[in-house]
Amino acid sequence: MQADYQTLAEHYGTPLYVYDFDAMAANYRRLKEAFSGHKSLISYAVKANSNLSVVAHFARQGAGADCVSIGEVQRALTAGVDRYKIIFSGVGKRDDEIEIALREGILLINLESEAEMKRVEMIAKRLGKQARISIRVNPNVDAQTHPYISTGLHENKFGVEIDAAKRMYIYAKNSEHLDPIGIHFHIGSQLTDLAPLREATQIVADLVRSLHAIDVDIKFFDVGGGLGVVYRDETPIDVHAYADMITEAIRGMDLTIMCEPGRSMVANAGVLLTQVLYEKENGGKRFVIVDAAMNDLMRPTLYQAYHRIEYLGQNQEKATEADIVGPICESGDWFGKKVPMPPTEHNDLIAIHSAGAYGFTMASNYNTRGRAAEIALEGGTARLIRDRENFEDQIRLEKGYLNTPAEGYDDDT
Ligand code: LLP
Question: Please, what sign has the CA dihedral across residues 285, 314, 369, 268?
């Protein structure tokens, strides 16, 4: 991204998320084109970056949306995603969420247990509808990624085992209120090796063959998300090899390939800009304290994730190692350790790279810090796509203790 970060930081303040919409569109096109010659639907995983403008931007390219809460479904609809391109996944959907999804008529509700299937059937019956469903199969494949973002082993909470899935498909096929047309799996995130994906794809493709043989008419083959990106020096999976692997695995079957990429669409199209507040030394260790914190980007502390940190100030002096930390009252509030950094001045600008995915969406108000502003760069112009949260925004839903009438459950008469 060749943006003038200094001007943006001065204009919008820091911490500031900056997204390159042109790069996002290019990422989408690259993946879509890899599937050319085959029916495909790329449903962007909204959880990676759910800003309405980001979702709308993908919708304009033709993308669908992969959602894991009714809030995400509503975001997708609000952003203009076609309802026939929306899929609703998640291990724990509430009745009200299932009901809204059915009323909205989205493409698929993705089931993750037999109990959930019965619940969806019951609600569909009450509404006089037939629910289009897919089943998330857990292929028991080790995705070889960080354990927190690995999802395809039986020991993980996700999906159902192959035998249970078969039983569920047979049940659903015979139900008046269920229409089993999709199959789904997702074995983990930030994958850089095609082998576990190939193994899972083949297992699930074989399952589809056996389902077709008993007249379960699966039409959508959803391979989930998970394509890794370069944070430091990883070699990402080539999208053509990925697409070829999938088309090969499902050869001879009439299926629409669906995928749900999140990170690979947005991670490297985003940076978090922050300014230096102070420098200090404790016990001979150098700390650079910046105005962003773990509430803005929690990936480093949560997953020990590496994000490249770039000094954008004027100082040309020799860099020495420093820990780059935020102002929050936790030792886990860090962005990088032993980062080469010249001596910094108050207000020097720092860019934290690869922050477009699971950055803002995992932000919180911890320490009563307002969440950062977000801007989009497109065709050389900048646009504010989320205001910086102020104190009033944060306390809006909190009833004032002093002027809220008590509701009388504490009856001591
Ligand atoms: N589909 C399903 C069912 C998922 O669970 C996920 C991500 C995706 C698609 C999108 O995966 P992606 O293409 O982004 O790898 N917070 C973590 C990542 C959690 C991923 C959760 N599921 C992080 O910051 O690394």
Answer: negative
